[in-house]
Specification:
Pfam families: TM2. The chain is built from five helices and no strands. Helix 2 runs antiparallel to helix 5. The longest helix is centred in the C-terminal third of the chain and has 28 residues. The protein starts with a helix and ends in a 16-residue tail after the last helix. The relative contact order is 0.16.
Length: about 100
């Protein structure tokens, strides 16, 4: 039952790449997509520099999907830890043998 509650909590806080790209289209130069992903410091920097005069905005076009994955991985780990669950299903890699 705890796993179901944890999964439900994670579903309520996870971010979607499609939403991040949509925000990027309409407010990318102001860092809206970064605010959505919780990168407040970088968002403010983009806001005051107009996306690094557009350079950061273009670079983010290629980085959004990976950033969404990283944010979701971190949020999932935090939720699972809060519920006392060891999460081995999300982005885990086996360690070196020996």
């Amino acid at each position: 039952m705890s796993v179901l509650r944890a999964e439900s909590e994670y579903d309520s806080v996870k971010k979607e790449a499609r939403v991040a790209y949509l925000i990027w289209v309409f407010s990318g130069i102001f860092g809206g997509h970064r605010f959505y992903l919780g990168d407040t410091g970088r968002s403010i920097a983009m806001l005051f520099t107009l996306g690094g005069l557009g350079v950061w905005t273009l670079i983010d076009l290629f980085l959004i999907r990976g950033r969404v994955r990283a944010v979701n991985r971190s949020r999932r780990a935090a939720v699972m830890a809060r519920h006392g669950i060891v999460d081995v299903s999300f982005g885990s890699e086996p360690g070196p043998a020996g």
